[in-house]
Amino acid sequence: MTETAAATGKTTWQIDANHSSIEFAVKHMMFTTVRGRFKDVKGTITADEQHPDASVVEVEIAAASIDTGSPDRDAHLRSADFLDVENHPTITFRSKRVEGAAKKEGDKFRVTGDLTIRGTTMEVTLDCQYEGTGKDPWGGIRSGARATATIDRRQWGLQWNQALETGGILVANDVRIELEVQAVRQ
Question: Cα angle at 181 between 74 and 38, to 5 degrees?
Fold first, then answer.
């Protein structure tokens, strides 16, 4: 820990995109789940050991990095019908508060912040679990957490849909967000 970090009780952690995943799941035709992920993510966590509730999480995702395993579907998700990546190239999250200090593996906590998609910002709460901290083979310190939330995509302007002949809709409105984050202490 640097002298400044020791004096302030704050530590900065860089999200390791190679060992983290930002994934989502949504029902298709009301009976199967389609999963996808964003491959290009960066972010920092400023942990305040003395006042954990004052910790800050900032994440930026390249919207065009969406990957569902289907190039045609991915192109549609990048279009103005959904993410409109040409006009809104990034998805961002900035925490506003952290509730519950995670001290040992398995501890649960909540992170509430502003999620911006397509230029629309809405508050979202992530239910999180601390996964532990350890030294990596290169002498660095790494920490992990998982988080989940469910959002209604329509609140961010992702309105496109299609009615099904049998009733219901093609793409569900609720989207489950599932995060596995590994961060390296700076």
Answer: 10
CATH number reported for the structural domain that contains residue 48 in this entry: 2.40.128.110
Number of Cβ atoms within 10 Å of the Cβ of 186: 15
Write out the residue range of the structural domain in which residue 138 sits: 3-185
pTM: 0.89
Between strands 174-185 and 10-15, the pairing is antiparallel
| Phi-psi domain of 50 (left: phi exceeds 0; alpha: psi -120 through 50; beta: other) | alpha
Count of C-beta atoms within a 10 Å radius of residue 35: 13
pLDDT digits (tens, 9 = 90+) for 86-114: 999 999 999 999 998 778 899 999 999 99
Rounded to 5 degrees, what are φ and ψ at 64? -70, -10
Distance CA 98, CA 94 (A): 11
